[in-house]
Design goal:
This protein has 521 residues and is α/β, with parallel strands linked by helices. It has helices at 20-38, 54-62, 67-84, 98-113, 168-177, 185-194, 227-232, 234-237, 257-272, 299-302, 306-310, 312-322, 344-371, 383-404, 408-429, 431-434, 440-463, 469-478; strands at 4-9, 12-13, 42-50, 91-94, 117-127, 132-134, 152-162, 182-183, 202-203, 205-207, 216-217, 220-225, 249-253, 280-283, 286-288, 291-292, 329-331. Bound molecules: 5'-O-[(L-methionyl)-sulphamoyl]adenosine.
Length: 521
């Protein structure tokens, strides 16, 4: 039985356009999902849209349309982005679907029946931007509200509360005894820090007088469900009939770790007698040209336009290579004033075009010219070849180790050490000189050189398929190999390429004439 693997992303708010942050999270989860599938795990990859709540209601009001019309429109736009980025999700959940609503109502009813939901009156501060209640603890030292909350309003009303505080000591214990629950590790400390203060119970309702766009409470129809309670449940409602719970990984941004994912969600599940998810993989935030990526400035939406120019794979590669998972990163298309700076264009030109693309073409060229397009068998085996094979072993070991911790950037870095080594190998071997020699030993070296470069590229094309699926398919087909569908038996050095018929020419990363400007804020 292959092991199963259930991975999710956050579900995006249906109140604006998709932007870089949304795109990155899907790409990261997609790379992990594709890698798991190719590793032989029965993988289920879920993403979706968070369609209820005040923000959505307000956005619809602004345009004088029904919220359902708005979310239908936005769902189509977000789904189109998934297509543009070649995301391989198995399911797409929308919180207005009835398969989701019934589970939310079932959860609420069960908690109510167990006496874990009560009615009370409190005065609270509310941030619509974060769809979150705040307390005085959330204020800055000068008493003001941090900017991330946007406008904060005070409300006094009767609402239903979930007895969250009852689960605080269980949660602290759980987090401490499951050190991999929150990844990377330093994020865990932030949550434990938050949990040092006593938690408040969680308000899980909104009176319909104020908010109608939500799921009705099953035990009091004059209220709708608080949007976070509704949204978090998507991870479970989408697979309720599939036997896939618990999720292996929830991929989320750092802003929604605590309290929603690290506090509300595990406590809700605990109260319901359901296992918590195995892991929260928390990524940092993208800025664009060192400025906050935001909907209002438009910069983060525009940054998606590079997909049209450079293709999805180059974009996927850049995002994965540039962001160390957990830390923040800056998206820069090009920086003419600082030629040494690493940007999207520099990675495209150097890592992709020069290091990888040109290597493929050199191979096709030499094999075409000297072997009628058929990759030769490796005859000679000298130190240079042995070194190259060793470098592959080192590189794939580091790749696997980094990938196991979802540190895709480090994995790619290790792989490019090998790709650079192949370029250095070809320079050292100088096959163009060997081809002119009449000496049989030189011919054997030429055989070995082209066979090794072909094999190295086959290995690279295989391991990189989850990151750049279309490009790797093309690479492999052009060196006369089938596209890679699994890793097993495919990642060790072999003679698999011997006799493969290569294409005449293959441009993996066409040069782009004028580099795009980085969208400014
Ligand atoms: N709807 C909630 C999530 C509910 S999950 C049960 C939400 N939506 S969101 O649209 O605001 O954000 C969706 C995801 O995108 C979050 O994980 C968030 O961290 C991520 N990003 C939004 N902007 C981002 C960047 N600038 N950079 C990286 N990711 C960021 O929160």
């Amino acid at each position: 039985m292959p092991s199963s693997f259930y991975i999710t992303t956050a579900i995006d708010y249906a109140n604006g356009s998709p932007h870089l942050g949304h795109a990155y999270e899907k790409v990261l989860a997609d790379v992990i999902a594709r890698h798991a599938r190719m590793s032989g795990r029965k993988t289920h990859f879920l993403t979706g849209l968070d369609e209820h709540g005040q923000k959505v209601q307000q956005a619809a009001q602004k345009r004088a349309i029904e919220p359902q019309v708005l979310v239908d429109e936005i769902a189509a736009v977000f789904q189109a982005m998934l297509g543009d980025l070649n995301i391989s999700n198995d399911d797409y959940i929308r919180t207005t679907e009835s398969r989701h609503k019934v589970v939310v109502q079932d959860f609420l009813q069960r908690l109510f029946d167990q006496g874990l939901i009560y009615k009370g009156q409190k005065t609270d501060w509310y941030s619509t931007r974060q769809e979150q209640f705040l307390t005085d603890k959330d204020r800055d030292p000068d008493g003001s509200w941090p900017e991330i909350y946007g406008e904060v309003t005070q409300t006094t009303e009767e609402n239903y509360y979930f007895k969250l505080s009852q689960f605080q000591s269980w949660l602290v214990e759980y987090i401490k005894s499951h050190p991999d629950f929150i990844t990377p590790r330093f994020r865990q400390n932030q949550v434990l820090e938050f949990l040092k203060e006593p938690m408040n119970d969680l308000c899980i309702s909104r009176p319909k007088a104020r908010l109608t766009w939500g799921i009705e409470l099953p035990f009091d129809t004059s209220y709708v469900t608080y949007v976070w309670f509704d949204a978090l449940t998507n991870y479970y409602s989408a697979v309720v009939d599939k036997g896939l719970w618990p999720a292996d990984v929830h991929v989320i941004g750092k802003d929604i770790l605590s309290p929603p994912h690290a506090v509300y969600w595990p406590c809700m599940l605990k109260a319901l007698g359901i296992e918590p998810p195995r892991q929260l993989l928390v990524h940092g935030w993208w800025t664009v040209n060192n400025q906050k990526a935001s909907k209002s400035s438009g910069n983060a939406t525009d940054s998606l336009s590079v997909v049209k120019t450079y293709g999805a794979d180059a974009f996927r590669f850049y995002l994965c290579r540039e962001m160390v998972v957990g830390e923040d990163a800056d998206f820069v298309v090009s920086d003419e004033k600082n030629p040494g700076r690493i940007t999207f264009s520099s990675r495209y030109r150097q890592d992709l075009g020069n290091n990888l693309g040109n290597l493929v073409n050199r191979l096709l060229n030499m094999v075409g010219r000297n072997y009628g397009g058929s990759i030769p068998a490796a005859a000679a085996d000298e130190d240079l070849e042995k070194n190259l094979r060793q470098l592959w072993c080192d590189s794939i070991k580091k790749y696997d180790e980094s990938f196991a911790e979802y540190q895709v950037s480090h994995a790619l870095e290790a792989l490019w050490v090998f790709i650079s080594a192949m370029n250095a190998y070809i320079e050292a071997r100088a096959p163009w000189k060997l081809a002119k020699s009449a000496d049989a030993a030189d011919r054997a070296r030429l055989d070995a050189c082209l066979a090794h470069v072909a094999e190295g590229l086959r290995l690279v094309g295989t391991i990189l398929t989850p990151v750049m699926p279309a490009t790797c398919d093309k690479l492999l087909v052009n060196i006369g190999r089938p596209v890679a569908t699994h890793f097993e038996g495919q990642l060790t050095w072999s003679a698999a390429c011997t006799g493969s018929k290569v294409a005449e020419k293959c441009i993996l990363f066409p040069p782009i004439e004028a580099p795009l400007e980085t969208p400014s804020a």
